[in-house]
Structure formats: structure tokens, C-alpha cells
Design a protein that fits this description.
This protein has 127 residues and is mainly beta. The chain contains 1 helix and 11 strands, in the order E-E-E-E-E-E-E-E-E-H-E-E.
Length: 127
């Protein structure tokens, strides 16, 4: 059975940092695009960042650009999201995802492009 399991969420003060991890089991996902999305209470799920299977291509939402870095370690079947200078508006449940996507930005940023999802990890940023 295929699983994506997120970890690393928690409560942090504004300006702080967190590193989220998403480990895969049951399938390596080495040739899959990996993405991070988030959903705040009362809001739709939104794109945060995504990285190609090779790690050479990545995209970021404008709201996190310059503060967030996505990376992957295919040997460990894991993708990471390093988040710095966190703001209260970053508070949300963060989900990792995997999919076989066409190499366009539109595909990377759309949650409909991904067919494997983790259960989510809560990130809360206090002011």
C-alpha cells in the first residue's frame, strides 16, 4: 500500500522556522513530481511549492517565494519543505502530494495533477 507521511509541523512564533518532511512508503516516487499544498480554516487548498523528479525544476507560490525551499532526497524517498520567516498567515494544514505530471508550471501548481496525498501536518504560527 502506498503512503505519504508528513512530519515536522508544530507551533512556532512569527519569524521562526520549520522543516516539514514527507516520507514515502510502498512506492519510491523517485520519478514522481512532489508537491506541497496547504489549507487554512475556511479556505480552499492552495499550492505552496513543487519539485520535479530530478530536483532540477521547482516552483513556488508568490506568497512564500524567498522564504520557503523545497528539496528532495530520492535515496530516502523523502521531500522536504524548509520554511523560514514564518508569518501568522502561513498557519494551515500542510499536505504533501505526488504525481506523474507534464512538465508545465500549470501542472505543477494544480492539485488535480497529483493523485497521491499525505494526511497533512498542522503548522501554526503565532503573532
Amino acid at each position: 500500500q502506498v503512503h505519504l507521511v508528513e512530519s515536522g509541523g508544530g507551533l512556532v512564533q512569527a519569524g521562526g522556522s520549520l522543516r516539514l518532511s514527507c516520507a514515502a512508503s510502498g512506492r519510491t516516487f523517485s520519478n514522481y513530481t512532489r508537491g506541497w499544498f496547504r489549507q487554512a480554516p475556511g479556505k480552499e487548498r492552495e499550492f505552496v511549492a513543487a519539485i520535479s523528479w530530478s530536483g532540477h525544476v521547482s516552483y513556488y507560490a508568490d506568497s512564500v517565494k524567498g522564504r520557503v525551499t523545497i528539496s528532495r532526497d530520492n535515496a530516502k524517498f523523502t521531500v522536504y519543505l524548509q520554511m523560514n520567516s514564518l508569518k501568522p498567515e502561513d498557519t494551515a494544514v500542510y499536505y504533501c502530494a505526488a504525481g506523474l505530471l507534464g512538465p508545465t508550471r500549470d501542472n505543477y501548481v494544480s492539485d488535480r495533477s497529483y493523485n497521491h496525498w499525505g494526511q497533512g501536518t498542522q503548522v501554526t504560527v503565532s503573532s
